[in-house]
Amino acid sequence: MADATYGASTPTETEVVDDERTTLIQKRRPRRLRRSVAAAAALILCGTAVKVKRGSIREYRLGSDVGELGEYPTATWEAVNNDSVEKVYDLEEHILVTTEVNNAYVFYKELLFGRLGRATGTLDPSKGVRVKSHAYATSAWNTFQSNLDDKLVKANSIVWVSVVNTMDTLVAGGMQKELNAMGVADEVIYWGCNSGETCDGSDGELLVGECVYTYGDDVLLHNTLLRTLLSYELPLTIVLASDLDCKTRLPVTHHKIIYAGDSSQAQFDEYVSRGGDAAWFPFGYEGVVTDDEVDELVENVEASLKAEKDTLLSYSGSVIYRKPSRVRLGEWAISGGIEEMEQLAARSGLKLDVESYGMYGMDIVHPEGPEVEWTAGVSDPDSDTLQGRSYYVLAPAGDVWTSGRMLEALTFGAIPVVDQTYKTDGGLSAKGCEDPALHWHEVAADTFVFVDDWPKLPETLVANDALDVEKRAARVARLHGVLRRVADDARDAILTPPKNAKTVCETVPLFDDELQQLVQQAYDYYTQPAPEGAPFGGMPWFDAFVENPSLPTNTCGAKDLSASNGAKCFDEACALPSAASFDCKAVDTTV
Predict the structure, then answer these.
(1) What's the CA gap between 176 and 492, in Å, rounded?
(2) d(CA 126, CA 118)
(3) What is the pLDDT of residue 278?
(4) Is 122 a residue whose pLDDT tops 60?
(5) What is the pTM (predicted TM-score) of this model?
(6) Is 25 exposed, middle or buried (0-12, 13-18, 19+ CB in 10 A)?
(7) Domain ranges (residues) in the chain
(8) Which domain of life is it from (predicted)?
(9) What is the mean pLDDT of residues 82-95?
């Protein structure tokens, strides 16, 4: 077994254990952390059985022992899946823990090198990894920033980061003193209606700033950490796992950029066309946060791949106003679409199993209707193998640009039925991104089913082998090749170090008069007159917001869904940038 030289650490000899499972070795026992922080960390260091010597099995289970004061421990895990691995790559990574990062991380760790890869047959038996992993809770991101400033992050390290949750907090809360000095009272920049009828700010919450940046044209100007990463003098592999990836236009640098999510497929192509070193990842696996959930996912996939297919089409998902493609699907379903699908399932000799829930959306479209839910054939709605027993699984667009549904169906062995480039609702579900289904077209055009409009679903399924037993089975058989191609490309992206020549970046700061002008704009926004019809005593700037399903994410939307989290400012006027400009250029080595 040979070692590869990629990574910051010097390769060392490692005994290849005789276990055929992926190993995760905990080198240092972590300290105890509060339960709330432990839950957020559980995914990142999820445990796997380790066979230390023949006949002896030791399991490391993360549980709640994950450090203290918001700092996660450094851990070392390795994936050496057989006794004839040709290369073991030494990697070092830094993980800024968020939900979106977690989703992408499970794809990387479990499908590319771990238990999901073994279950689906997508592992590369010739390659193994040893990974030194540093994870940071949100309360410890300043520690990572300090590590960058002190140049402690080693060359070729992998950095996992979410653009959306690393924004500078320069909204009304962050600039509160400046706005107060201009006469904007606390009750205007607080939201005080959560626990009473009076909106006077007396028990208000500070504004939440994670949504406003969606409306900026240049995410980099609001994100100090991302600028610091791109300016880092040593090459890094930066994995961007965020809904905002498609709105993040990066300068070409000596770093490798991995865009994790369907939303950024066109963005990846554009970046490469400018000479950038980049790769694309799927969004990842949603809702897998703890060791037990990873175990359950692997067990369900293993069982699903062995199960006999008895269902033509299955789907289970929420329908709310911010998921317009699903509202469109529901409109068709309750207007006779369910009956059409039941007839198609009967013709195929298979079951139909679809259900909707969380119906904030359908009740707006059909307020007069007594029945807005659409359900059919739900004999086992909680079955863990339903997707695997299905030939086709619906994957409509949700309330964000990225989606894990295509990858999930593919992993379980079902054919994803994808909203054709999110056009079924006129493009609203694309949330401003360009063709979120682009890469799936490139790798799975002859396997996935792409639907132009949901009323065309029955005829589209028939045209894609739903009633032809042999062709339908052949289409399912091609799924493994699609998954293997995606996994191989992603694995190569992770294991290949950055290749671009050295660059230097420059941040131009804001002058005092520029910052003062921005604060004045925010002042004007927060002190605008109340719109006609606004409730007395309310916050005019908040009441002036007009809901639009094309705006990204669920929590950045309807007031009755988000008021409990504090008011959201949806206007770019609330987002004060922390820099005037940012640019990078290649270093002239001829001088």
Answers:
(1) 47
(2) 13
(3) 97
(4) yes
(5) 0.83
(6) middle
(7) 2-166+220-286, 176-207+517-575, 298-490
(8) Eukaryota
(9) 90
Q: What is the DSSP letter of 585?
A: E
Within 8 A by CB and 6+ apart from 555, the residues are: 210, 211, 561, 562, 565, 568
For the chain, helix (H) and strand (E) counts, in that order, are 20, 19
| 46 close to 115: Cβ distance less than 8 angstroms | no
Fold of 298-490: Rossmann fold (3.40.50)
Q: How far apart are CA 8 and CA 91, in angstroms?
A: 7
Q: Which of 410, 384, 380, 382 is nearest to 395 (CA)?
A: 410
CA 141 to CA 342: how far, in whole Å?
51
Alpha helices in 403-556 (DSSP H): 405-412, 438-444, 457-463, 469-477, 479-495, 512-526, 540-543
Question: Which residue bears the tokens 């916050």?
Answer: 539
Give the list of residues 6+ apart from residue 150 with CB closer than 8 angstroms, or none: none
For residues 100-105, average pLDDT? 89
Structure tokens at 164: 């959306």
Tokens of 563: 């008021």
Contact 476, 415 (CB under 8 A): yes
Q: Where are the beta strands (DSSP E) in 123-276?
A: 127-136, 158-161, 190-191, 205-206, 237-240, 256-260
